[in-house]
Write a structure and sequence with these properties.
Blueprint: H1 13-19, H2 40-43, H3 51-67, H4 77-86, H5 101-110, H6 122-130, H7 147-165, E1 177-179, E2 184-189, E3 203-204, E4 210-215, E5 222-227, E6 233-236, E7 242-247, E8 253-258, E9 264-269, E10 275-280, E11 287-289, E12 294-298, E13 302-307, E14 314-318, E15 332-337, E16 343-348, E17 356-362, E18 368-374, E19 376-381, E20 384-388, E21 394-400, E22 405-414, E23 419-420, E24 423-424, E25 426-428, E26 434-437, E27 445-449, E28 455-457, E29 466-471, E30 477-485, E31 488-495, E32 500-503, E33 511-516, E34 522-527, E35 536-541, E36 549-552, E37 558-562, E38 569-574, E39 584-589, E40 596-599, E41 605-610, E42 616-621, E43 628-633, E44 641-642, E45 649-653, E46 659-663, E47 668-674, E48 682-690, E49 704-705, E50 711-715, E51 722-726, H8 728-742
Helix pairs in contact: 3-5, 4-7, 5-6
């Protein structure tokens, strides 16, 4: 920089000199340039060097800007050139996990060894960098390259480098972690965008050639397909909203369940041409396509099956609704169909954060019995049952097919698997391959966002496992839930002026979903303290000056509360998604023990938010078949006015009551103007910014807004990529056999 101007030296001027008849500086056999940014052909002193060499240099500079160092470094020029010619750069996301996958693909494409594999121009490179709707997966070259020619070129490069620089190196080899004796191969796939409350079930085709999993990404949502012998992840058309997936026995089709209500089971051919709706379902917590042509599905309190061609649901197992507690303890989840087609395996959720039971169901008699402890069944392989424990550990235990019992010790084989609501993201194929997602870091951050989506951290030193939050009416403190351990979730207060974080609720219990009393003197929160699974609303003084007070207690659990600045009534949500009356909204005068129903139907109502003047209740309901945001008079209820147009969750009022903010189904934060004194207060709506990267709870408010119009969100940790281990079983089988023989246990 000189006098505010950038002075740029470009060796391309040497080519212009040659074109004008002068001698070219970069003659054959002479490499001119900084080795870290030289393309392989330039490092070799090739005569035919064109703009694609500049694309390589641009990729190298971009790589360094994002990763903090050049793609290839070394103690000498020769060492660097050797790497340029023989090695692939380390993927940036291994050291900088915030780099978008599409950007990494573009940069690595620009750093391709062969010029033909690079983007054709700077414009093409720019397009790749900014492309947000491209299918996830590895970069695909602009044309198919003969790999024999690649090896030939690399061999010539190796000999030339030895001749020119006098250095030796190993021939080019792809950086894939392999084990030659067992054929084990490891690679990763882009992490899917999922419901924060619901992990989905991936699948591996019977022949092990295809991996499938659902992705709720805002751009191109749907089922992702990854063929093992291809470099791309493809999107199966018309599968938006998919959750659990399973392959047909012949591997030519998929079945999947839609997550958004009303849920349904669909089948679709892998080419996307044939698609059919098989049946409506209440919920999905496990899906399998049996050899007998039936689709088996786990709902909350029962296991059902239906012919893959369509038909009537047949109940295989039904547990009494009364035996499933409000927190879903005792509910069924996950499914394995035994190879002989005569029985099923499933699991139940345990009490609190403990293992549930492993259950075997005989298909002929429909009788069931408990065979062990765990929270999810994964696969039956080579006479061994693989199942999950509540701490995210995959364990293996021999299964006696004749006696239908587990025998021998449980041997842990993989730990740290990602699971939400005790449902893991994992699948093991018939060929012994494994696909799973590792547990993410628990570190998240608090962020302020402007109306245009510009984010700044509240405090760069403040990193915890944050959950729901609420900004005090006075604007000086944040009440937020923090997960401390598997058995400890607490309410904490962060003072914005003093930059201090202090704990409010005691350890050893779950306290979460905070809100505030109208005057800001007390924090309201949900807790199951002293009541088993029955959650209630409590309050604590913000200064810690008194003991906990019980605010709302009902026969059914209470999950959310909204107390407006004006008015004598507060709103709360009670119940849970039980498939019957579901969740309902009530109003109660503070200090009373009786409540009046505001919105109580067989639909699922949630997310109550009372306007600051106490006249209107904003809430969500799936009465139309899709969750939308509505308004109704408060506290009396009555006519409901639909506020959202394309689905919505988590309504939050502005402090002056002139706007309602909510997140639509694509993750956009929507602002709708309101005039509360009017009979129909709903005004115009507009999208503010993409909020999909921030923490979102479908069942409670996930953000807040300050008096000056800034939004307070939780920035969660980035999900880990999906890990794939081909022929994984050949690697772990000896360890399982040794563990079973020695009698080791987890």
């Amino acid at each position: 920089m000189q006098d505010g101007h950038a002075l740029v030296a470009d060796f391309g001027i040497a080519l212009a000199v040659q074109s004008a008849g002068g001698a070219r500086m970069t003659q054959t056999g002479l490499s001119l340039g900084t080795p870290q940014y030289m393309s392989p052909e330039q490092a070799m002193g090739e005569r035919a060097i064109d703009a694609r060499s500049d694309i390589y240099a641009l990729g190298a500079v971009t790589y360094e800007m994002l990763a903090g160092e050049a793609p290839f470094t070394g103690p000498s020029v020769q060492a660097i050139v050797a790497k340029v010619l023989s090695e692939r750069p380390t993927p940036m996301r291994m050291t900088r996990d915030t780099v978008p996958a599409s950007v990494e693909r573009a940069v690595l494409a620009a750093l391709s060894k062969l010029p033909v594999d690079r983007p054709a121009s700077a414009a093409a490179f720019s397009t790749m960098l900014s492309e947000s709707t491209a299918p996830s997966g590895a970069f695909v070259a602009s044309r198919v390259v003969d790999r024999r020619a690649v090896r030939w070129w690399q061999g010539i490069a190796a000999l030339s480098l030895v001749a020119l620089a006098g250095v030796t190196f190993t021939a080019f080899r792809a950086k894939v972690d392999t084990t030659s004796t067992s054929g084990v191969v490891r690679f990763s796939l882009p992490a899917p965008t999922v419901n924060v409350n619901r992990t989905t079930q991936p699948a591996i085709s019977p022949d092990g050639r295809i991996i499938a999993y659902a992705d709720r990404a805002d751009a191109n949502p749907g089922i992702r397909l990854r063929w093992i012998d291809r470099d791309t992840v493809e999107i199966l058309p018309r599968t938006e909203g998919a959750a659990d997936v399973t392959f047909s026995p012949d591997g030519r089709s998929l079945a999947y369940v839609t997550e958004d209500k009303p849920s349904a089971v669909h089948t679709i051919s892998l080419d996307g041409r044939t698609r059919a709706r098989v049946a409506s379902v209440a919920d999905s917590r496990g899906l399998r396509w049996g050899e007998d042509g039936y689709l088996y599905l786990v709902e909350l309190t029962r296991i059902v099956r239906v012919p893959a061609s369509g038909g009537t649901l047949e109940v295989i197992l039904a547990t009494p609704q009364s035996s499933v507690k409000a927190t879903a303890e005792g509910a069924l989840q996950s499914l394995v169909v035994l190879d002989d087609g005569k029985a099923l395996l499933s699991a139940t959720r345990g009490v609190g954060l403990t293992d549930g039971t492993l259950v075997l169901i005989d298909l002929a008699t429909k009788a069931s019995h408990v065979i062990g402890r765990g929270v999810a069944v994964v696969s039956m392989h080579d006479g061994t049952l693989l199942y999950m424990q509540v701490d995210g550990t995959l364990v293996a235990r021999r299964f006696d097919m004749a006696k239908r019992v587990l025998v021998g010790p449980a041997v842990p084989v993989l730990s740290g698997i990602y699971q939400t609501d005790r449902f893991p993201f994992i699948a093991v194929g018939r060929d012994g391959s494994l696909v799973y997602q590792a547990a993410t870091s628990a570190v998240s951050r608090l962020s302020w966002l402007t109306r245009s989506g510009v984010a700044t951290e509240v405090d760069s030193t403040l990193t915890r496992a944050f959950g729901a939050l609420a900004l005090a009416p006075t604007g000086d403190q944040i009440a937020v839930s923090i997960v401390v351990s598997s058995s400890d979730e607490a309410i904490w207060l962060y003072d914005l002026a003093r930059r201090t974080l202090s704990r409010m609720t005691p350890p050893g219990e779950r306290s979460f979903r905070p809100s505030w009393t109208p005057d800001g003197s007390r924090v309201l929160f949900v807790s199951d303290r002293g009541s088993g699974a029955l959650r209630r609303i409590y309050s604590l003084a913000r200064d810690g000056g008194d003991s906990t007070r019980l605010v709302v207690s009902r026969a059914r659990l209470v999950q959310e509360v909204s107390w407006p600045r004006a008015g004598e009534y507060l709103a709360f949500r009670e119940g849970w998604s039980d498939g019957g009356t579901n969740r309902d909204l009530y109003a109660m005068r503070h200090g009373d023990t009786t409540a009046r129903a505001v919105v109580a139907t067989t639909a699922d109502e949630s997310n109550p938010a009372v306007s600051p003047d106490g006249r209107w209740l904003a809430y969500t309901s799936d009465a139309s078949g899709r969750t939308e945001v509505y308004l109704t008079p408060f506290p009396g209820g009555g006519a409901k006015l639909q506020l959202s147009a394309n689905g919505g969750r988590s309504p939050v009022w502005s402090r002056d009551g002139r706007e309602i903010f909510y997140r639509d189904m694509k993750g956009m934060l929507i602002a709708t103007s309101v005039t509360t004194p009017a009979a129909n207060p709903i005004g115009a709506s507009r999208a503010l910014f993409d909020a999909s990267r921030y923490y979102f709870d479908y069942n409670a408010r996930s953000f807040d807004v300050s008096a000056d119009g800034r939004f307070l969100f939780v920035t969660p940790p980035r999900q880990t990529d999906v890990s794939v281990v081909l022929h994984w079983w050949s690697e772990v089988a000896p360890a399982i056999a040794a563990g079973a023989k020695s009698g080791s246990a987890p």
